[in-house]
Amino acid sequence: MKKINLGIVGLGRMGFTHAENIVERIPEAVLVAVCSFVDEELQMAKTKLGVEKTYTSFENMLLDAEIDAVVIASPSGLHGEHIRLAMKKGLHVFCEKPIGVEVEDIEKTIEVVEGYPKQIFHLGFMRRYDKSYQYAKQKVDNGEIGDLTLIRCYGIDPASELENFVKFATNSKSGGLFADMAIHDIDLVRWFSGKEVKRVWAIGKNTTYPELDDLGDLETGAAMMQLEDDTMALLVAGRNAAHGYHVETELIGSKGMLRIAQEPEKNQVSIFNNQGVVRPTSQHFSERFKEAFFREMKEFILCIQDGKQPGITVYDGLESTVIANACQESVDAGKMIEISK
Fold first, then answer.
1. Do residues 223 and 323 touch, judged by C-beta distance below 8 A?
2. pLDDT at position 43, please?
3. What residues does the Gfo/Idh/MocA-like oxidoreductase N-terminal domain cover (predicted)?
4. Mean pLDDT of all residues in 319-323
5. Residue 236 and residue 255: Cα distance in Å, rounded?
């Protein structure tokens, strides 16, 4: 079967993770081109990954006749434009979350994606490809914990990255805490429950870096959600976990409950020293979800080869952003927000 030739735009930590997986772990694909505005990233792609074709213009990369598909890991505000350009060039598209930051822009993207049904579109909600989450989903779907009553999600970045984030937020728009980070947990709520969110109430606080107030962003936020069947969901999102990268999910049902990653363990090693018994923890998303990132990219390639669309759709991207935006609106307005359909 023909190998799939890929181009990638965006070579930050997320983009480079995808690029490494393509080059080192997916023999069905070839990374033939990369695009970045940062010269150091292009040089790294050449020296570390052996990619010969480098571009500083996404539009110019799309003119490369050798490319079959693109991976979009550019800043969130560019995702919609990049998706539409690539689809119109006849290319398959994998896009990192979110699909966009403005609903009107996402709706334009959906219209374009729907216009090219034979091209594969894949959205990067990688937690759906984590084996622990897939195991829990199977248990829920099989009714082993009964009817879901409450879903609780923690998603907190390490404190060691907070200063860098503040610098980023000063120069770029992240989309806000809920659209930038909690969107993964929002997707999990919809995925596990199979239901839509009908109202949200969210709050937030900036403690370590109060200057985030002026930037319209949050260090820590929390949201309470009510789903269309009255199932409840509680989200805690943040950027200041002292112990590392903390992602935890709890599913409470009428017959039992499940917890996924109650402790963000790095491995199965316990350290016994003068601090007591210590369990090392994951420090970055690329470490905790290393296999999930690989498995979602592998799925994208197989979908192209098999001519089938993945389970994650453009509508999952739209609904997650609608909910994330409603959470931010709730913070700004200080009131519960109804999500109209």
1. no
2. 96
3. 4-119
4. 97
5. 25
- pTM, two decimals, is 0.94
Q: Listing from the earlier edge strand, what are the strands of the sheet with 121-124?
A: 53-55, 29-35, 4-9, 69-72, 92-96, 121-124
The one-letter amino acid code at 302 reads L
CA-to-CA distance for 15 and 9, rounded, in angstroms?
Answer: 7
CA atoms 57, 62, 65, 71: torsion sign = positive
Sheet-wide strand order for 220-227: 257-260, 246-253, 148-158, 232-241, 220-227, 197-205, 337-338
Distances (CA, A) of 274 to 242, 277, 328: 20, 8, 44
**Domain 128-291+320-338 homologous superfamily, CATH:** Dihydrodipicolinate Reductase; domain 2 (3.30.360.10)
Q: Which CA distances in Å does 12 have to 8, 52, 54, 98, 300?
A: 11, 18, 15, 16, 20
**Segment 116-157, tens digit of pLDDT:** 999 999 999 999 999 999 999 999 999 999 999 999 999 999
Report d(CA 165, CA 208) in Å as an integer.
12
Nearest alpha-carbon partner for 295 in 117, 94, 1:
94
Please tell me what DSSP assigns to residue 126.
G
Q: How many CA atoms lie within 13 A of 219 on its CB side?
A: 20
Q: How confident is the model at residue 341 (pLDDT cuts 50, 70, 90)?
A: low
Each residue of 263-277: pLDDT tens digit? 888 888 888 989 888
Which residue type does 117 have?
P
Q: How far apart are CA 272 and CA 25, in angstroms?
A: 35
Write down the pLDDT at residue 226.
98
Predicted confidence (pLDDT) per residue in 272-297, tens digit: 989 888 889 999 888 999 999 999 99
In the chain, CATH 3.40.50.720 covers: 4-119
Between CA 101 and CA 299 the distance in angstroms is 25
CA quadruple 319, 115, 92, 37: dihedral sign: negative
Question: In the prediction, which pLDDT does 174 show?
Answer: 74
| CATH 3.30.360.10 residue spans of the chain | 128-291+320-338
